[in-house]
Amino acid sequence: MGREKSPRIDKISWGQVKIEGFSSPFKDVKLFPGNAREWDWNETGTRHKPGIQPADVQELVDHGATIVILSTGMIERLQVRPETLQFLDKAGVKTHILNTNEAVQLYNELQKDKAAAALIHSTC
């Protein structure tokens, strides 16, 4: 039995991310092997500064991601905390930090045959 594939991003535009297999778009989304769900910043208290926290990526690692793509927003306002990168490095997860459009492009390429995961921020 093979690993579960991460869902493909069908379309990204300001404020909305459409994911294969989901009828409703997401504003911000967590994608990981086998599923995707709304990335609700209120769950962990995430804000643009200081940015993405270890608690935001824990779920991705728990679902078996070996590569994580972190989007910094359409105009790169979302930061990534250093401890998040340390957490991913310690977990042996390769990490890419890109603006949202580049993050979507790389994620869609990697999810075809890798255990890829992503946090996609669809606005600033």
Description:
- The N and C termini lie far apart (40 Å).
- The model has no long low-confidence stretch (mean pLDDT 96).
- The protein is globular.
- The strands form two sheets. It has a five-stranded mixed β-sheet, with helices on both faces.
- It is an alpha/beta fold.
- The chain has helices at 54-62, 82-90, 100-110; strands at 9-13, 16-19, 28-32, 35-38, 67-71, 94-98, 116-121.
- The longest helix is centred in the C-terminal third of the chain and has 11 residues, at 100-110.
- Helix 1 (54-62) runs parallel beside helix 2 (82-90).
- It is built from three helices and seven strands, in the order E-E-E-E-H-E-H-E-H-E.
Descriptors:
124 residues; alpha/beta; five-stranded mixed sheet; 7 strands; 23% helix
SSE topology sketch:
Blueprint: E1 9-13, E2 16-19, E3 28-32, E4 35-38, H1 54-62, E5 67-71, H2 82-90, E6 94-98, H3 100-110, E7 116-121
Helix pairs in contact: 1-2
> Per DSSP, what share of the residues sits in E-state strands of 2 or more residues?
25-35%
What helical percentage do the residues reach? Answer: 10-25%
User: What ranges have pLDDT less than 50 throughout 5 or more consecutive residues?
Assistant: none
- Shape, principal axes of CA atoms: globular
Number of DSSP strand runs:
7
Measured on Cα atoms, how large is the radius of gyration? 13 Å
Q: How would you characterize the largest beta sheet?
A: 5 strands, mixed
Give the number of helices.
3
Strand order of the largest sheet: 4-3-7-5-6
Order of helices and strands: EEEEHEHEHE
Oligomer: single chain
Mean pLDDT: 96
* SSE-based structural type: alpha/beta
Terminal residue distance: 40 Å
